[in-house]
Amino acid sequence: MSPDLDLTVPAAAARSPLRTVLAVDSRLFEAAAAWHWPGAERVLPRLSRGANHGVLWFATAAAMAASRTPRARRAAVRGLASLSLASLAINTLGKRSVRRARPVLDPVPLARQLKRQPITTSFPSGHAASAAAFATGVALESPAWGAAVAPVAFSVAASRVYTGVHFPSDVLAGAALGAGAAFLVRRLVPTRAQVSPSARPRAQAPALPEGDGLVVVANRGSGTADRVRALHDALPEAEIVECEPEDVRDELEKAAARARVLGVCGGDGTVNAAATVALRHGLPLAVLPGGTLNHFAYDLGVEDERQLARAVRHGEAVRVDAGRFVTGDREGLFLNTLSMGVYPELVRERDRWSHRIGGWPAGVLGALRVLRADRHPLEVEVSGERRPLWLLFVGNGVYHRMGLAPGRRTDLADGLLDVRVVHGSRRPALRLLAAAAAGPLTRSPAHAAVQVNRLRLTGVTPGTPLAYDGEITTVSDEVTLEKLPEALTVYRPLGTAG
Fold first, then answer.
1. Which region among 116-130, 341-355, 470-484 has the lowest average model confidence (pLDDT)?
2. Residue 192, class by beta-carbon neighbours within 10 Å (0-12 exposed, 13-18 middle, 19+ buried)?
3. Which residues pair with 388 in a beta bridge?
C-alpha cells in the first residue's frame, strides 16, 4: 500500500472531516470562478505564466541587485535562497506525498484558462510556494523591498485560483510552505539585523548638524560621484574633495590640517589610508563606502550616505581596534585583514586584469592562475618552529562564518587578531578548498585557527609579498603583528541594525 495521501476520497469516507474540508474547498473554487475580478483578465494569466520555473523572481532579483544597494543585493540573494529551498521541498515531498487531481475547468471562463495546462498534481501550489518564499525572504532582509514585492507575490498566488489550475487550499498550503522555507533560511543564515555590529564602546565625537567641519576626501577611481553628491545634499556645509587615486594620500593630509572630522569615500584601501591619517592627527573618522567590497564600513554598520549623515548630525560614534604590522623599517595599519602566501599573488593578478575585464572576473582569473602555477609554500618560523604555509590570514577582529560563505565581524573592538593558516602540501588548490569548506572549524588537516593579540613571524624570505586591506607591500625576514585596542573613533548610527 502506498504511503502517499490520495485526496480523491471514496464515498465510504463521505462524512469524514477531510471530505468536509474538500467540499468547502470546491465551493470556494467555484465561487472564485463565478466572481468577476475587475482588471484581472489581462494581468493574472500573464503573471501566472511569467512565474513558471521562477523566471519572474529571478528577473525581480536581478532588478533589485541592479540598484547597487547592499541591502537590496542581500534581500535578492535571500529571496532566491528561500525560493530554492521551497521548490526543493515541493518537488521532492509535497507533490509526491499528496496526489490531488487538478480542478475541473468547467466553471472557469475560457478567457482565464492557461493555454498550457500543468500536468503535475495539484497540492500544494508550487507557484504560491515560490512567490511566498521569495517575498518573505526579501522582507526578512529588507522590509521596504518586501513591501514592494508582496503585491506581486500575492497576485501570482491568486492567479493560480483565477486561472483554474489550483484549489484555494493548494495555494494556502503552498504559501505557508514557502514562508516556512524563508524562515528556515533565516535560521541557517541570520539576517544582518540579527547579527548587528556591536554599538560599544561608544565614543565622544562632534555633532555636526549641517556638516560644518567635516572634510570628505573621495576617490574618483572608486566611482563615488553619486554617493558624495547625496552626502553633500544631506550635510550641505560639509566640504567634499574629489581626487584621483594617486592624490588620495596628499589630499587626506591637507584635509586633516583643517578638519574637525576627517571623512573618506572609497574602497578599503582608501579607507585604510584615511584611518592612518586620522589616527596620526587624533581626528574622528567618517567612512562612506564607495568601493567594491567595503568590508570595514559594512562591518561597522554604515551602508549608505543616509546612515552616515545621521551619525554625523547627532555625533554618534564608537571606538574600534586597528591592527598594526611592523617589518624592517616599515609599518602600517590594517582595519580588515592582512595575509601572506598565495593571496597577495592573487591580488597582483587581479589588479593586472581588473582594468580590462572587471573586478570580479579578474579575481576569478587571478585565482585560477595562482593555483595552477608551480610554486612552493611560504616558509615561516612561529614560536621557534619552521612551518610551510600556503596561506596566513590575520583578521583585525574575529571573523564569523569564514569559509565558503562570506565572513564578517560583529565586534570591531574585541582586542583580538583572528589568525588562520592553511598548511603547506604538494597540492595548494586542494588544501585551500578544504580550508574553505572547513569554515569556522578551528582544526582540520588543512586548516588551523587561533585568536591572539600579538604575533611574531621570523625567518620569512625577504621580499615576500604581504597584502593588507587590498594593498601590497613586501616584508623583510621578520614581521610583528599587534592590536591597537580602541585606537580609532569612527562615526556610526547607534541603535540601528546597520
1. 341-355
2. buried
3. 379
Which amino acid, residue 142? S
Q: By the 8 A CB rule, do 383 and 371 touch?
A: no
CA angle at 134 for the pair 130 and 139, rounded to the nearest 5°: 150
Euclidean distance between the first and the last CA atom of the chain, given in angstroms as a whole number: 55
For residue range 191-230, list pLDDT tens digits in order. 766 666 666 789 999 999 999 999 999 998 877 788 889 9
Please answer whether residues 241 and 218 qualify as being in contact, where contact means their C-beta atoms are separated by less than 8 angstroms.
yes
Q: For residue 421, what pLDDT is reported?
A: 82
Please compute, for residue 454, the number of CA atoms within 13 A of its CA located in the half-sphere on the CB side.
5
Residue 335 near residue 323, CB atoms below 8 Å: yes
Determine contact, residues 498/318, Cβ cutoff 8 Å.
Answer: no
Contacts of 189 (CB under 8 A, 6+ apart): 78, 81, 405
Instruction: Count other Cβ atoms within 10 Å, centred on residue 53.
Output: 11
Q: Residue 378: in which H helix or E strand, if any?
A: strand 378-382
The whole-number pLDDT of residue 406 equals: 46
Whether 164 shows a pLDDT value over 70: the answer reads yes
Q: What is the pLDDT of residues 294-338, one digit of tens each?
A: 889 988 989 889 999 999 999 999 999 999 999 988 899 999 999
CA-nearest of 461, 159, 490 to 327 is 461
Cα-flanking dihedrals φ and ψ of residue 455, to 5°? -145, 135
Cell of 466: 604581504
Cell of 188: 541557517
Q: Is 417 helix (H, G, I), strand (E, B) or coil?
A: strand
Q: Provide the grid cell at 164.
A: 483554474
